[in-house]
Amino acid sequence: MKTFTIEHNLEMNKSSIKKSLLEYCMMNCLGKQKSYLFRERAYKLKKNEQEKFNGMVRALKSSIPVAYVLGNQPFFNYTFEVNSNVLIPRPETEIMISHILDCGDKIYKRTGNMTILDLGAGSGCIGLTIAAERKNWNVILTEKFYSCADIIKQNMFALKVTNCHFIIMDWLRGLRENLADIIVSNPPYIEYESILVDDNVKNFEPNTALFAEEKGLSDIKKIIESSQETLKENGYLFLENGYDQSDDVVNLLREHDYRDIQVFMDYNKIHRFTCSRKI
Ligand SMILES: C[S@@+](CC[C@H](N)C(=O)[O-])C[C@H]1O[C@@H](n2cnc3c(N)ncnc32)[C@H](O)[C@@H]1O
Question: For residue 168, what are the domain limits?
Answer without folding.
Answer: 75-278
